[in-house]
Amino acid sequence: LRAVALSGLALLSAIGLGATSTVSAPPAQAVTALVAPGTGTPDANVIAGYLENARDYYMTTTPCTAANDCNVVGVNYPATFWPLFFRPRWCVPGRCDKWDVSVAAGLNNFNSQLVDLLATTDEEIVLFGYSQGGAIVSDQLRLIAGIDPALKERLSVVLIGNIDNPLGGPWTQLGFLGTIPIVDVTTGMPTIVDTGIPMTSVHFEYDGVGDFPLYWGNLPAFLNGLAGFWYVHGQMLWPNGYNETGLPNGYTPAELADQMNPDLHPENFRYDSFGNPFITIPTRTLPIMQPLIDFGKAFGLSWLVQPFIDLVSPALRVVIDTAYDRELDPGVPRYLSILPFNPRLNLVEVAQDFVAAVGEGVQAFLDDIGVRAPAAPVREASAVTALVAGRAL
Q1: Contact partners, residue 116, CB within 8 Å, separation at least 6
Q2: Which of 49, 132, 181, 270 has fewest C-beta within 10 Å?
Q3: Considering its fold, how many domains does the chain have in total?
């Protein structure tokens, strides 16, 4: 259905963009950002803080900033995913379309607004997509891949938690299916990166939508990815009118900005062969541990639960990370593998990292319970050491 929607809109796009040669454009205003929100947000324009956070958190490298009075506009669409009624606002009476239907409606609206801006203004335009909105913008990129390069110079793209992420997006990893029946999800339509339009992709580490493990045979990593969907993915634009809790893992906006600065944290950046950055924000707490953390807080047992979380987390993180391949080109789509770990890893180094992580966990556990690890004994100088020292004198 997504492919059908693309072919149907191609003519609309061509007609609208052709109008640029005949319409006299008014003077450029600042910048407009078109925002395709995530599932559960059919109208981002009425959610306090949603659009502002999209701009201030993730569009800092684009022309759209608060300082230049950027006009941030939410693109309305169903934003549903039948039958996931257990997620807030994802499937409610009167608004519960299947995935492909929702994405197609979003693409129709997004394309119409983009064509109008391109045809009637000479503004710079940022195309922004979050989660399901990432699928909409990905489809939009296919529509405009062949437009006049002069028009492309006015465009830039920002995707966050993108479900069509070429490397970590589940719909990309399941691309060999073509479609997921019953729920009607078209797979295998990853975001294209060779359009000539600058693109920035951002996701939090272990986000189950934008950073799912490549090697699904690793059960801890698979479960951690599912937990990342629940506990990390939906918080990328918090706090807002939906929730005042804040960004994932207690990040402040200033800390997030630092993590997205390549001069401060180059380790968070990978680039595809066209120079587009893919930014992975480190996750401080393994998502799979969050239910235990919440349990401890709910029942006043954090004092008991937290030491054990700190004990196992470092070693568990090493195991989980073996299901990822951070050295691959992030712009090249890849299907999932049923292997339990990345076969390109140096297993000797992994074993060394695991042993070190076990020690780190033990130390954290002892610190939590107020027990200091014994200091290393002071060894008397050996005969060889004494001899060397004597020669130095």
Answers
A1: 16
A2: 181
A3: 1
- Over the chain, what HEC string results? CHHHHHHHHHHHHHHHHHHHHCCCCCCCCCEEEEEECCCCCCCHHHCCCHHHHHHHHHCCCCCCCCCCCCEEEECCCCCCCCCCCCCCCCCECCECCCHHHHHHHHHHHHHHHHHHHHHHCCCEEEEEEECHHHHHHHHHHHHHCCCCHHHHCCEEEEEECCCCCCCCCHHHHCHHHCEECCCCEECCCCCCCCCCCCEEEEEECCCCCCCCCCECCCHHHHHHHHHHHHHCHHHCCCCCCCCCCCCHHHCCHHHHHHHCCCCCCHHHEEECCCCCEEEEECCCCCHHHHHHHHHHHHCCCHHHHHHHHHHHHHHHHHHHHCCCCCCCCCCCCCCCECCCCCCCCCHHHHHHHHHHHHHHHHHHHHHHCCCCCCCCCCCCCCHHHHHHHHHHC
Task: Judge whether 15 lies within some domain.
Answer: yes
Cα angle value 31/281/268 (rounded, 5°):
95
pLDDT at residue 6, rounded to an integer: 58
Within a domain: residue 319?
no
Is there a contact between 34 and 125 (Cβ–Cβ < 8 Å)? yes
Do 193 and 162 meet the contact criterion of CB atoms below 8 Å apart? no
Look up the domain containing 25 and give its range: 2-285
Beta carbons within 10 angstroms of residue 261's beta carbon: 15
Q: Is residue 346 part of a domain?
A: no
Domain assignment present for residue 154? The answer is yes
Integer CA distances (angstroms), 19 to 10, 12, 14, 108, 150, in order: 15, 11, 9, 18, 14
At 38-85, the pLDDT tens digits run 999 999 999 999 999 999 999 999 999 989 889 999 999 999 999 999
| CATH classification at residue 126 | 3.40.50
